[in-house]
Amino acid sequence: QVQLVESGGGLVQAGGFLRLSCAASGSTFSINAMGWFRQALGKQRELVADITRRGTTNYADSVKGRFTISRDNAKDIIYLQMNTLKPEDTAVYYCYAYNNAYIWGQGTQVTVSS
C-alpha cells in the first residue's frame, strides 16, 4: 500500500509562485513514476507533469517553461515548483503515484487571482 499526502496549495496573484509537495509512504519501493494532475471546475482532469524514478520528466504544453517537477528519492517526496502562475492554472491539483495502478492524493486547491 502507498499513501500520498500533499501540501502547498493556496491563493496567489497572477505572476506569483507556489510550490506543491507530495510525500509518499508505505510500499514506496513499488512506485515507478509520480506526478501531478489538475482539475479545474467543470473540466476534465489533465496531466500537469510527471517524473520517473530515474528522473525523466514530462510536462503539459501549457506549463512548460513555468513549472518544474523534481523528486527526492531518498525522502519519497516530489515537488512541483509553479512560477509565473496564471488564472487558468486555478484548479485542484492531485498528486499521483503509479505502480501498475494509479494511487491518488487527496488534492490541494490552487487559486490564481487576476
Query: Would you tell me the structural class of the helices and strands?
Result: mainly beta
Helix content range of the residues, please? Answer: under 10%
The rough form would be described as globular
**Helical run tally:** 0
Tell how many strands the DSSP assignment holds. Answer: 11
Q: Largest sheet, if any?
A: 7 strands, mixed
Model description:
The chain has 114 residues and is mostly beta strands. It contains no helices and 11 strands. The strands form 2 sheets. Strands 2, 4, 5, 6, 9, 10 and 11 form a 7-stranded mixed β-sheet that branches. A 4-stranded antiparallel β-sheet has the order 1-3-8-7, with no helix packed on it. It is globular. The mean pLDDT is 95.
